[in-house]
Amino acid sequence: MDYEKIQFKAGLEIHQQLETHKLFCNCPSELKDEPHEILIKRRLRAVPGEEGEVDVAAEYESLKNKEFIYEGYKDSSCLVEFDEEPPHNINQDALDIVLQICKMLNCKIVDEIQVMRKIVVDGSNTSGFQRTMLVGYDGKLETSKGIVKVDSVCLEEDSARKIAKNDNSIIYRLDRLGIPLIEIGTKPDIKNPEHCKETAELIGMILRSTGKVKRGLGTIRQDVNVSIKNGARVEIKGFQDLRNMPKIIEYEIERQLKEIVKQEVRKANSDGTTSFLRPIPGAGRMYPETDVKPIIIDNKRLDKIKLPELIDEKILRYEKQGLSSELARSFVKSGFELEDYDYKLDKTLIASVLVEVPKDLKARYNIEYEFKEKDYRFVLDALEKDKISKSAVTEIMLEIAQDKKIELNKFEKVNENKLEEEIKKIVHENKNLSDGALMGIIMKRFKNTADGKLIASILAKYKNG
Ligand SMILES: [Zn+2]
Predict the structure, then answer these.
(1) DSSP 271-337
(2) What spacing in Å lies between the alpha carbon of 82 and ligand 1's midpoint?
(3) Is residue 2 part of a domain?
(4) Is residue 280 a part of any domain in this protein?
(5) Residues 163 and 226 placed together within one structural domain of the fold
(6) CA of 67 to the centre of ligand 1 (A)
(7) Does position 108 have pLDDT exceeding 70, yes or no?
């Protein structure tokens, strides 16, 4: 497909939950599986006159007979979620995270933040609107296909979580309502479906580099706006997995080439196709939130916000210290910092004790054990003092995980001279055996007490002698 020729245009909108308490109250930002403790029922009240837009009104008409049921918790939903108390002061930590991300995206930052209400009529918000505020604009991302400009960065509240729905009512849970969300929108500078995935991955990497965003399913949502020559803008929502993103966009483009396309919101399906979700809501459904004072952002505040090291830079730095690309990646993902482990040991050995061996134990023995800092230190100290060979690490950590009393004596590293003597003897006693068979016998004998490489190099000296 010649994407330039069909005048392919795409922009991304990314929503990511921040790892802090809620935006306008102190309730925790945690989704709960347990049964709810509070339940209230509401019908949509008459909306105030400011709302204006026809499409919103139309949607309101279609929903006004529905009953909305909200489930909450005593310890994690307060009167703010129920819209029975005005919003508290804005969560400053959430705002600082967004300011930091704005800096990372090279955005201009507004000097005064005005919180706005965006009308939401589907009941996913108890107040009938979502609070949102513009923080940054005019940023840029450097990608392999050139600059992708960042249009806007907003801080907003997440909506309530839809639990169930029937003809008469919709049940929402309030645990998600009010979780701080950053919304990043790019300009339609994306060149093709693969480039869209690359840009989404880049934004995801930048967000994770702060260490202050939520992780896991549903904590980040990507929407893609896509159009071709003479076509309408179509928004695709609900990408489950970035790997499928190019395929879904390719299918959508094929559809747009075949059909006359209306401006609408479509849902990304798991088979790569998209299906109609709803019309694109009109603009101008926003008005100022008068319960929250404008927030001045001065240089003093901005100067205090430092840029974190990007995950990609950190991976490169660890690669330079000798870690393989794969190990560097999983090490960074694990959240450990190599600098915290001040040993003279080989960096790859340190990283594998911390990350690889626990993963290996899980895969091989199905052991789900959360190693503690002292466990890692116990193993690393023994290695550093040359008490054990690195071949003993897995066995020792297995015993720790099985809560066994570790007797380091049994893993004591064989002295190199002694090892050489023993190997010489074994070779002498087994003159008829092949090199492979000899290696097998020796490895078995020194399984946890000598390094395989050392054994192989000594054996190479004596095997034909
Ligand atoms: Zn609350």
Answers:
(1) TS-EEEEEEPPPS--EEE-TTS--EE--HHHHHH-PPPPPHHHHHHHHHHTT--HHHHHHHHHHT--
(2) 8
(3) no
(4) yes
(5) yes
(6) 22
(7) yes
Distance 364 CA to ligand 1 centre (A): 44
Please tell me the distance between residue 160's alpha carbon and the centre of ligand 1 in angstroms: 12
> Do 421 and 405 share a domain, yes or no?
no
Reading the block at residue 57, the tokens are 């009104």
Helix/strand/coil for 211: coil
Kindly state the tokens that stand for 244: 């499928």
pLDDT in tens, 35-50: 888 888 987 665 555 5
Instruction: For residue 21, report the distance from its CA to the centre of ligand 1, in Å.
Output: 9
Residue 345 belongs to domain spanning = 311-411
Say yes or no: 287 and 320 in one domain: no
For residue 3, being part of any structural domain is answered with: no
- Report residue 334 as tokens: 């694990």
Q: Tell me which of 233 and 121 has the higher pLDDT.
A: 233
Q: How far is the CA of 243 from the centre of ligand 1 (A)?
A: 36
| Tally of structural domains, the chain | 3
Neighbour-count burial of 240, counting CB atoms closer than 10 A to its CB (0-12 exposed, 13-18 middle, 19+ buried): middle
